[in-house]
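Good day; I would like, with your permission, to put a structural problem before you. A protein sequence and the structure tokens that stand for its backbone fold form the material at issue. I would ask you to consider whether the tokens describe a fold that such a sequence might reasonably adopt. I set the record out below, with my sincere thanks for your time.
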Amino acid sequence: MHILLIILNLLSASPGSRNSNLVVFVAQLSREILISTHEIIIFDKSQLNEGHGFDSTTGVFTATTQGIYTFSASVESDNRDVRGAIYRNNEPFVYILGLFVDQKGAFASAMSYVHLDEGDRVWVQWTGGVNGRIGHFRSQFTGHLLQEDFTIS
């Protein structure tokens, strides 16, 4: 719901107040997947990809514009816990941690802000100590450019 409100605000802003580079994506899993420790979760179903920074074949977002971004990820698993992180250029900047919710497994989500340079890469990675099974109903990865860096010529 949070990302939907942001998208509506971005799209309804007056042309003069809108960032010149609209960058926003929403990606989900098309099916349940089995994943190994330290493997990138490939969100292969792109629902929105303005700015074309998200690659649904790799699960990686590549910044096309320098600025402040927000990213969120939600992961459901039939393991007893969820352990993951959102990475920027091989370094985690926010962890996704959750415990057993019910007989169906665990669920966790995280959101953070980060400054990206053009070409920086961001993805979600499974960090659990054991391999996992990730469900596709509530798992998603989203991101958008909040504020583009301005340069003075």
Q: What stands out?
A: Residues 2-12 form the longest helix (11 residues). Residues 70 and 113 are 4 Å apart (CA to CA). The two ends are 39 Å apart (CA to CA).
